UniProtKB/TrEMBL annotation:
Belongs to the DegT/DnrJ/EryC1 family. Keywords: Aminotransferase, Pyridoxal phosphate, Transferase. The modification N6-(pyridoxal phosphate)lysine is found at K185. One of its GO terms (molecular function) is transaminase activity. This is DegT/DnrJ/EryC1/StrS family aminotransferase. The active site is at K185 (proton acceptor). One of its GO terms (biological process) is polysaccharide biosynthetic process.
Length: 376
C-alpha cells in the first residue's frame, strides 16, 4: 500500500455504460436526438421523485438554464453561500443578475439560514442553497424564508445525487434544481448536467432555452423569438448516464460506506473534524472534506497535505470564498463584510480521496497516515 497512488476521485463504471455507448455509436445516433437522452431524463426524474428533467452538457449551464427558466435577469439578486464552487456564482452572472453572499454554518458548512434574511432586498428574486459535499441544506428554514419574501429556491445539487432531507431526495426540495455529472460526481456522464422540477412551466422554459429557442412543437422555420443557448447533451453522454442511474443506489451506498468508515477511523484524532451529521439528513459524501484545527492537531492543513502527497495520497483544497474572487469583484459584487466560517474552512480544509471505488484498505491506509503524522 505504501507505493500505491490513491487519487482524490475517479469514476466508477460498473454497469451498462459500454453496452449503451456502443449501441449509440453503432446506430449512428451520437447527437442529442438519440433515444438515450430521453431515457436518461425519464429515469433520473424518477430517481429524484420529480415530474420533469432536462439534460444539459454540463452542470454549470444546468444552473444557468434553471435561472433563466425562472426569469432571473439583469437587476435581480440571487442569494448564495459564500462557501461554494465558483460555478454557483458564475451561473448567476451569466443572466446579468447579481450574486449575494451569505456565510455558512460552522457544523454543516452549508448556507446559514439564520443569516439569509439580512441580505434580502427589493431586488432579491431567489435563494440558491448548495448541498456542499453531498450534504443537503436546512430546507425547511430556507423554504419558510422564501415563502415569506416570495422568492424562488434554486437548488445547486451538483454534489448531492441521491442525498435526502427528511426522506425527500435532492431534486425534489426546491422550485427547480440543477445537477452536475462531471467525472468525479457520484453519478457521472463524464461531462453533463440536469435540470429537474415539478413545474410544467419551468420545464417547458428549460426545454425551449436549452435548444436555441427552437419552437417546442418541433417546427423548424428558423425564426427565433428569444436568445437561446445550445446546452444539449449528446446521446453518448446520456447512454453513460442511463447506465449510471440504473445503479444509482449501489453507487450511493459505496460513497456512504466510505464516508462512514472515514469518520469512524478518525473520530478520536484530536483536531480533525468532518461536517456534523444530523439524523434527518442523508449525506452521500460526494467528497470527504476534512477540517484541521492546527492548534489541536499540531500541524497545519498544508503540512498534512504535503505529507500525504509524499505518501502518494491525492487531495484537493477547499473552495476559496466568493468574497475573495477577483472575477466577482470585477463583475460588481458586494465584497464587503465578514465571512469567518468560510474563511476558516478555506484556510484549514481539504478533501480526502473519495472515489466510489475506494477499497477499505485504502481508507485505512489514509487514516493511519493522518494519525501517524499527528504524533510526529
Amino acid at each position: 500500500m505504501e507505493n500505491k497512488f490513491i487519487p482524490v476521485c475517479e469514476p466508477l463504471l460498473e454497469g451498462n455504460e459500454l453496452k449503451y455507448v456502443s449501441e449509440a455509436i453503432k446506430t449512428g445516433w451520437i447527437s442529442s436526438n438519440g433515444k438515450f437522452v430521453k431515457l436518461f431524463e425519464e429515469k433520473f426524474a424518477e430517481y429524484c421523485g420529480v415530474k420533469y428533467a432536462v439534460s444539459t452538457c454540463n452542470g454549470t449551464v444546468a444552473l444557468h438554464l434553471a435561472l433563466i427558466s425562472l426569469g432571473i435577469g439583469k437587476g435581480d439578486e440571487v442569494i448564495i453561500p459564500c462557501f461554494t464552487m465558483i460555478a454557483s456564482a458564475f451561473s448567476i452572472c451569466y443572466t446579468g443578475a447579481m450574486p449575494v453572499f451569505v456565510d455558512v454554518d460552522k457544523d454543516t458548512w452549508n448556507i446559514n439560514p439564520n443569516l439569509i434574511e439580512e441580505k434580502i432586498t427589493a431586488r432579491t428574486k431567489a435563494i440558491m442553497p448548495v448541498s456542499i459535499f453531498g450534504y443537503p441544506c436546512e430546507m425547511d428554514k430556507i423554504r419558510k424564508i422564501a415563502k415569506k419574501h416570495n422568492l424562488f429556491i434554486i437548488e445547486d445539487a451538483a454534489e448531492s445525487h441521491g442525498a435526502e432531507y427528511k426522506g425527500v431526495k435532492t431534486g425534489n426540495l426546491a422550485d427547480i434544481t440543477a445537477f452536475s455529472f462531471y467525472a468525479n460526481k457520484n453519478l457521472t456522464t463524464g461531462e453533463g448536467g440536469m435540470v429537474v422540477t415539478n413545474s410544467e412551466n419551468f420545464y417547458k422554459n428549460a426545454l425551449y432555452y436549452k435548444n436555441l429557442c427552437f419552437p417546442l412543437d418541433g417546427s423548424r422555420n428558423y425564426i427565433h423569438d428569444d436568445i437561446g443557448f445550445n446546452y444539449r447533451m449528446s446521446n453518448i453522454h446520456a447512454a453513460i448516464g442511463l447506465a449510471q442511474v440504473e445503479k444509482a443506489d449501489y453507487y450511493r451506498e459505496k460513497r456512504i460506506l466510505n464516508g462512514k468508515m472515514y469518520r469512524e477511523l478518525l473520530k478520536d484524532v484530536p483536531g480533525v473534524f468532518f461536517q456534523k451529521d444530523i439524523d434527518y439528513v442523508l449525506n452521500v459524501y460526494w467528497m470527504n472534506g476534512l477540517f484541521i484545527d492546527p492548534k489541536i492537531y499540531g500541524k497545519t492543513r498544508n503540512d498534512l497535505i504535503f505529507f500525504l502527497k509524499n505518501k502518494r495520497v491525492d487531495t484537493r483544497l477547499f473552495f476559496t470564498g466568493m468574497h475573495k474572487q477577483e472575477s466577482l469583484k470585477k463583475y460588481g459584487c458586494d465584497m464587503k463584510g465578514d465571512y469567518p466560517v468560510t474563511d476558516n474552512l478555506a484556510t484549514n480544509g481539504f478533501y480526502l480521496p473519495s472515489s466510489s471505488s475506494l477499497k477499505p484498505e485504502e481508507i485505512e491506509h489514509v487514516c493511519q497516515l493522518i494519525k501517524e503524522y499527528a504524533k510526529n
